[in-house]
Amino acid sequence: LKLFVGLGLIVPGAMGKKPKAKAAPEEGEAAPAAAEPWTCPECEQENEAQESVCIACEVPRPVVADPRFDGLVVGLVQSAEPVPGKDKLKKVEVDVGDAEPLKIVTNAPNVKEGSRVVVAKVGAIVDGEPLKKANVGGCPSEGMICDGPMLGWTGGGAGAAALLPESFAVGGPPPDTRPRTDGK
Predict the structure, then answer these.
(1) Please, which residues have CB within 8 angstroms of residue 112's CB and are 6 or more apart in sequence?
(2) Digit-coded pLDDT (tens) for 141-163
(3) Who contacts 31 (Cβ-Cβ below 8 Å, separation ≥6)?
(4) What is the pLDDT of residues 78-110, one digit of tens each?
């Protein structure tokens, strides 16, 4: 059993290449029918599973978030301080939209107070294993700050936190591709 200290927690196994995600249906193509009926967010009409638009108001069926990102959320770093005696580790508190911020230990050099990051919460599947609370550098860690390769993004390096612009809501789902952070 090989242990990997990612950007926050100890995860069994080494980071490897992520399987390629299936391409999203192109505009005009029907998404595969879900197995369960759905409720329209606009008018609250219940619709059959095979309906792609609401039968009452014709609002399109909401897109289901990418299952690769179950347990991953956008977080806002509220504080960041070095771990005593550990050169590269930082203790951070991250607001993920829950009642209390998560305490996470990371080795990502680009994390600082005010950064918006992608956080894997306890229970999220990382490298095929559910994420667990752990002690990292002698400090408790309740999640993991994700890097671009962990999310299947192109560009950016392994080990550097995947940073997001302010337009992403705290506690919301992360984007499926790297967003521009230069304001263009």
Answers:
(1) 77, 80
(2) 999 998 888 888 777 777 888 88
(3) 25, 52, 61, 63
(4) 999 998 888 889 999 999 988 999 999 999 999
Query: pTM of the full predicted structure?
Result: 0.64
User: Which tokens belong to 41?
Assistant: 């967010």
From the list 111, 72, 61, the residue with the least C-alpha distance to 91 is 111
Residues ≥6 apart with Cβ < 8 Å to 43: 54, 56, 57, 59
Question: How many residues would you count in the chain?
Answer: 184
Which token pair is 102? 């998560």
Q: How far is CA 77 from CA 41, 132, 176, in A?
A: 31, 20, 21
φ, ψ of residue 81 in degrees (nearest 5): -145, 150
